[in-house]
Design a protein that fits this description.
By secondary structure, this protein is an alpha+beta fold. Among the domains are: 139 residues, no CATH class; 105 residues, Fumarate reductase/succinate dehydrogenase flavoprotein-like, C-terminal domain (Methane Monooxygenase Hydroxylase, Chain G, domain 1, Up-down Bundle), CATH 1.20.58.100. The longest helix has 26 residues. The chain is globular and about 70 Å long. The protein has 18 helices and 26 strands. 51% of the residues are buried. Strands 3, 4, 8, 9, 10, 11 and 22 form a seven-stranded mixed beta sheet that branches. A four-stranded antiparallel beta sheet has the order 21-12-25-26. The chain has a three-stranded antiparallel beta sheet with strand order 5-7-6, with no helix packed on it. Helix content is 30%, strand content 15%. Strand 1 and strand 2 form a beta hairpin.
């Protein structure tokens, strides 16, 4: 009998029981990308299945909603093109912008949003609440965000988008395997680097083992996380997306797929364990743009435009002028780079509050605490922030909007205290250099893919956050659709392949190991140990010796500690499997860090043994893969995808 916290396990335990599933298109991960991929495949007439370790109706990084959509350049109000948007990389990406998938997003986001509307999603101000507002088009009733001239990002009511996608999957007959964690890919002949022919999974409630045979597989399992930070007891869930383990990365790494940009990491500025509710404290970015901030005496904090000019009104903040095309960066030393990394605030393509706010507070020009001055804004601007944006963004409707309202907060009357500088920190809550994030907030690594979004494993496609430098809702939706269209075409012309039984048995042995013991190390302790390895040997400053010692520690833990891992029930068994995936992701990160022999400003990457900062010869994608028990390192040009427009037209499948 299985127990958890002294309570009998409430589900039937069926360890070792096998269920085999034959499917045309196998989608791993039931988030935004996964649902769109499955819907697209089903509409094309193929049998599709989703494997999701949570509950597809609300799972994934955007499972609880979204408040803005884009780059939506195809909408009738947009004054820019997909090419214009690609020329202005997202914050933090710089020269390492993965334009291939971002171009797909720009080209297809509007049509995808209209398709979402057909499923019941609300994308217009149909009640005319904001009629006459500067950000609203009164003919289409569309509402725009951030730049009211360019009009390529849309404000939407996305709190229920995920349940609507789930409903559409069910309507189309998509088979959904909830509470089932994919643990390994199956390859032709069981060989590393061979064609992907399916996957295996574990039901985290019953312990049942599932074997999926597919003609094409799409990895939509999101990014890696919990590599540097994990401590539920001391600081709570101290990662921005706490349930990510990088399982999709780890499975494909073990199968021989090629990855890039995995060496990129940054200080954990938004999820250090000491932060305040991210969207529930007054600020001036993302969901809160263009909110006015004031100090304790009511003195307004200035905003600056893209060119550093002071913006004197709310209207100027949302009419920022031409896009910044990028400036040549001055050469830096390692010392200057480290100094930059110690400063949390970073400028971006949009207007924002003054970058030297911290220094001006310390000098006495502004008095703490700071406040979001919603009452001081126009009714339309106030209500679009507090009600539409805060309320539809993930994790805001119930914990913030409803809770604050029930507590008496009135956005037309009350100032909301800002977390900026609370406790003495800057715009973001400060964290130690070694408590880092990799792919948590977007600018991170992922699969190397071609214009079909096929990985280097034939038959395995990638979409959403598994692609480098990605993290937005529309990007997940559009790439999920795009990958599925190409996967459908591939599946229609290939024959079924036989599953290698030895590969299945090896995976069962690996996954079920922790249930064979009566006691031992549990998953949280093992996760914390892996984080300590990364903090010590892959922190902000690195060199070859540190990185190699880190790999030695991972090998030692895998050899001597993993065999002591203990799981008393299927849920803990799934958590343990997650941590084993984190171990492989750590190995992937360390190998990628060894491959890049130069410092990089955009990547927050410091190699003390290679002190050149952003040398031109290293402006390239470093790639790594496993092959015959060794790591193969290579590189690709930053624009390896070639001409965006012609290649998209050739491969989009429309």
């Amino acid at each position: 009998m299985s127990y958890i916290s002294g309570v009998e396990w409430p589900y039937p335990v069926m360890y070792e029981k096998e269920t085999e599933v034959d499917i045309d298109i196998l989608v791993l991960g039931g988030g935004i990308a996964g649902c769109w991929a499955a819907i697209t495949a089903a509409k094309k007439g193929l049998k599709a299945a989703i494997v999701e370790k949570g509950a597809t109706i609300s799972s994934g990084s955007a499972g609880t909603g979204c408040d803005h959509w884009g780059p939506c350049v195809g909408n009738p109000g947009s004054t820019v093109t997909a090419e214009d948007v690609i020329k202005t990389p997202a914050k933090g990406s710089g020269m390492y912008d993965f334009s291939l998938s971002h171009y797909i997003d720009a080209k297809e986001s509007y049509d995808t949003l209209l398709e979402m509307e057909q499923m019941g999603g609300k994308i217009r101000d149909t009640e005319n609440e904001f009629k006459g507002a500067d950000f609203r088009d009164d003919e289409t009733k569309f509402m725009y965000a951030y730049d009211y001239d360019k009009r390529y990002r849309m404000r939407i009511f996305g709190a229920n988008f995920k349940p609507l996608l789930y409903k559409e999957c069910k309507r189309l007959g998509v088979k959904i395997y909830d509470r089932t964690m994919a643990t390994g890919l199956l390859t032709e002949g069981g060989k590393e680097g061979a064609r992907c022919v399916g996957a295996v999974g574990l039901n985290v409630r019953t312990g049942e083992f599932l074997i999926f045979r597919s003609k094409a597989t799409i990895s939509c399992m999101s990014k890696h996380q919990r590599n540097w930070n994990f401590s539920t007891e001391l600081t709570g869930l101290n990662t921005f997306r706490p349930n990510l383990s990088g399982a999709g990365y780890a499975m494909a790494w073990r199968a021989g797929a090629t990855f890039t940009h995995m060496e990129m990491s940054k200080r954990s500025m938004l999820s250090s364990g000491n932060t305040y509710p991210f969207y529930g404290t007054g600020n001036a970015f993302n969901t809160w743009v263009p909110c006015t901030l004031v100090d304790a005496d009511g003195k307004e904090i200035p905003w600056l435009g893209r060119e550093g000019n002071v913006l004197g009104s709310v209207s100027e903040r949302v009419h920022p002028g031409e896009m910044v095309r990028g400036r040549k960066k001055a050469e830096k030393t390692v010392a200057e780079l480290l100094s930059d990394l110690a400063t949390a605030y970073r400028r971006r393509p949009l207007p924002d509050i003054i970058p030297d706010l911290e220094q001006r507070i310390i000098s006495g020009e502004f008095k703490l605490p700071l406040y979001a001055d919603l009452p001081g804004m126009t009714e339309h601007e106030r209500n679009i922030i507090w009600g539409v944006m805060v309320g539809n963004e993930g994790r805001t409707h119930t914990p913030i909007l409803r809770t604050y309202k029930e507590s008496g907060f009135d956005s037309s009357r009350d100032l909301l205290q800002s977390y900026i500088m609370l406790g003495g920190g800057g715009l973001y809550e400060p964290s130690l250099p070694q408590t880092r994030i990799g792919g948590d907030l977007g600018p991170g690594g992922g699969f190397v893919v071609d214009w079909h979004l096929m990985t280097t494993l034939e038959g395995l496609y990638a979409a959403g956050d598994t692609l480098p430098m990605s993290h937005t809702h529309s990007h997940a939706a559009t790439t999920g659709k795009y990958a599925a269209r190409n996967a459908v075409e591939y599946a229609s012309r290939v024959s079924e392949s036989k599953i290698d039984r030895t590969q299945v048995e090896n995976e069962k042995t690996r996954v079920y190991g922790p249930i064979k013991r009566k006691d031992g190390m549990e998953w949280k302790e093992l996760n914390a140990a892996l984080c300590r390895v990364m903090q010590n040997y892959c922190g902000e400053v690195k060199n070859e010796e540190l990185l190699n010692i880190g790999l030695m520690w991972l090998d030692d833990i895998e050899r001597n500690v993993v065999p002591t891992a203990y799981a008393p029930n299927p849920h803990i068994l799934g958590r343990t499997a997650e941590v084993l995936d984190i171990l492989d992701c750590n190995r992937l990160i360390l190998q990628s860090s060894l491959a890049r022999k130069a410092c990089s400003t955009q990547m927050s990457f410091v190699r003390l043994d290679y002190p050149q900062v952003d040398p031109p010869d290293w402006h390239k994608w470093m790639t790594v893969k496993q092959q015959d028990d060794r790591v193969v390192v290579d590189n690709l040009p930053l624009d390896y995808w070639g001409d965006l427009q012609s290649n998209y037209t050739k491969h989009c499948g429309l």
